[in-house]
Design goal:
Elements: E1 9-18, E2 21-22, E3 34-38, E4 44-46, E5 54-66, E6 73-82, E7 95-102, E8 105-108, E9 139-143, E10 152-161, E11 173-184, E12 192-203, E13 205-209, E14 211-216, E15 220-221, E16 245-250, E17 254-260, E18 265-267, E19 277-284, E20 287-289, E21 300-306, E22 316-324, E23 336-347
Parallel strand pairs: 1-23, 3-12, 4-13
Antiparallel strand pairs: 1-15, 2-13, 3-5, 5-10, 6-9, 6-11, 7-10, 8-9, 11-12, 14-16, 16-22, 17-21, 17-23, 18-19, 19-20, 19-22
């Protein structure tokens, strides 16, 4: 039988594996008056891919008033919370509801969601005597003590996050506080100030560094190549379809590795000699690899540290394509020649921002 009459299939199988991890950041600020808050309790865990989101969780926080310089204290604070500029509308739909207060202070606004979506109209906080309502949602803390021991009170909040928020992987979830506050005593006695603190209120909510990934397309198939000579490939390259890709969504940075079971050769079953093997080259994540660059079977041939993919529906599209370096003409006939590529996609720790903008790599010029 002539080799040109033998169908030699060239299929590359892809194996994807994923992991998940979770991790962290915090911040605070200062001004003439206002409040800041943080908690040291064990963190609640938010998996952005969990269809249930973060179930309603009660978190008790230490809320400390910021006192003006030159003596005096913060007397009353009206405030609400929003996501910071780096988070933007990704946190929209969050619920933060004050439930109770302990310490030398009174709390108004119990049962109201004091979190506002990023572009939502702000509530009215003045005059300082104004009380919160369902149409004007904010928290009002009236401090009753006038010494250092009464500067911090404990406020219990009910916190819930909807599913699929496109949040960065963090261990502590911080929100900006917008406020109006009144001061008593000292140089600022009776004065009212309006302002904001970036990342003023820090909740112990871990946003997992997690990802979702899959292979989109078909097997990397060269089709029938039994009649193709190696010499002809210089003028007419034989490639797999350019439409195949690995898709990634992630809350944090991630790494990608790729290895070839046969060191970038297609083997017929039971391959023992060179005529049982066909060399090919692969492009993935901007790198071209083949048996010359990576001659060790099963060794990692490609490694990339990728920046956050986001949870957007567009995610990161990582195209993959192969082309023949040898034709099938003259090779020992077989209905199937194949190799297995293993691609592993792994979340990185929250503090690692990733190195490469992996979605920018293309197949152009391959």
């Amino acid at each position: 039988m002539m080799p040109s009459l033998v169908k030699i299939m060239r299929n590359l199988a892809l194996v994807l594996s994923t992991l998940a991890a979770g991790f962290a950041t915090t911040a605070q600020a200062q001004t003439a008056c206002g409040v800041t808050g943080s908690a040291t309790a064990s963190p609640a865990v938010y998996d952005p891919f969990n269809p249930s989101g973060l179930a309603t969780t009660n978190i008790t926080m230490n809320i400390s008033r910021v006192n003006p310089p030159g003596g005096g204290t913060t007397s009353v604070v009206n405030f609400y919370l929003k996501a910071n500029s780096s988070t933007g509308s990704a946190a929209d739909g969050t619920q933060i509801v004050p439930l109770s207060i302990a310490g030398q202070a009174a709390l108004d606004g119990i049962g109201l969601n004091i979190f506002y979506n990023y572009t939502a109209t702000a509530p009215t906080l003045l005059p300082i005597t104004l009380l919160p309502s369902s149409g004007d949602r904010f928290a009002k803390i009236s401090f009753t003590g006038n010494n250092a021991g009464s500067d911090t009170v404990q406020v219990t909040f009910q916190v819930s996050l909807p599913p699929n928020l496109d949040l960065n992987a963090v261990q502590s979830l911080a929100f900006d506080a917008y406020f109006s506050c009144n001061m008593q005593g000292g140089h600022y006695n009776g004065d009212t100030q309006t302002g904001s603190f970036p990342n003023a209120v820090v909740f112990p909510v871990t946003v997992l560094s997690a990802l979702r990934t899959y292979y989109a397309g078909t097997a990397l198939d060269f089709g029938e190549i039994g009649s193709i000579t190696t010499a002809s490939l210089g003028g007419t390259p034989q490639k797999t379809a350019p439409s195949n890709y690995v898709f990634v969504q992630s809350s944090g940075a991630y790494s990608v590795t790729l290895s070839s079971q046969n060191a970038f050769k297609l083997f017929k079953p039971g391959a023992a000699i060179d005529n049982d093997k066909v060399k090919y080259r692969l492009r993935f994540l901007g790198m071209d690899v083949d048996n010359t660059t990576n001659p060790t079977a099963g060794a990692t041939a490609i490694t990339r540290s990728c920046q956050r993919a986001t949870l957007a529906t567009t995610g990161n599209v990582l195209p993959i394509q192969a082309k023949l370096l040898e034709g099938g003409s003259g090779k020992n006939p077989s209905p199937s020649y194949s190799d297995i590529l293993t691609i592993t996609v792994t979340p990185l720790v929250y503090s690692d921002p990733g190195t490469n903008a992996c979605a920018t790599y293309s197949l152009s010029g391959f």
